[in-house]
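Contributing new records

If you add data, match the layout below exactly. Sequence lines come first and carry their own label; structure lines follow with theirs. Keep one chain per record. Anything else will be rejected by the validation script.
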Amino acid sequence: MIATKAREKFQEVGNKGDEFVSWIKKEFEKIEKDTSVDFSVGVDFATNGQERKERYIESKEKRSEQYIDLPYGGLQAEVGDYLLIMAYTNRGKSWISSDIGLHAWKRQKKNILYYSPELSQKQQQTRFETLDGHFNNALLRRGELEDEESYFEYLEQFDLTDEEKPKLIIKTMEDLPKGLSLDVIEADLEHNPDIDVVVIDGFNLMNHGRTNDRNSMTTTSRRLRQLFGRHNVLGVVTHQVNNEAEKANKEIDEDTGARIVKAPPIESYSESIALIQDPAMILTFDQHDGIGQLLVAKAREPIVGKTIDLHCNFNLGFIEEPQLTDLF
């Protein structure tokens, strides 16, 4: 267009510069529109048998690389693709996602990209330290640990020059001045192509466009799934179940008057139904006074409906299944 059509048009309009500018603007807009459309010829299933064989062999060889195990032995399931964690507000879903991310990083040597747009770097890092080293989280944040030497000794293992350790990249509110968006995640994954797991602690905290309505959240969910697949990473996303669903599912023990801990059902989705359609696995979580429950609300394996009980002491970094000795 520049080499031929623009030159001819410039000669044609003569000294009418504004007319030429208007014409070339329209031409560029047409080019932009044509080239911005994603296009794929698709796959011919009738003739790609060899390609499918190679994919199967690759999956067989890399199976351990594409999945993570959950830190809770009672859930014998491998997680791959897209995991959603749903809970009512202030129940501890961020502690669960931190625990899963830390387990994948430390025990399975996965490279983690962890987004926490609601917390500061200090808050998220001390949360990891509490889960990993069981330091009192409240005292750690205030700089009032009783045994500081143990904490300082613990920190010595995190050597900046050790390139063999997997990455645990944390991005929090101060790293996201314009908020967390799909473009930010895409750019980070392109900059860090070795990432295995992306944790997004707060789907509702993402930028979903100008409106932030149900339609824009549906679009975000669908594009997230495509992004995870395009970069071959596992996505772990937390989301808050709405307050109306909490009221509808609240149960009270008639004898004690205490609220019964019960993980919310899958129907308690919030703003967009796409959030329960897109993930390969959904865990819902509830917790009260240190008693927690996880429910497998959706999975590709035959464990849907399975629940496990947890003892939760977030301040000391313990999220564990009760032992038999705890029952007596």
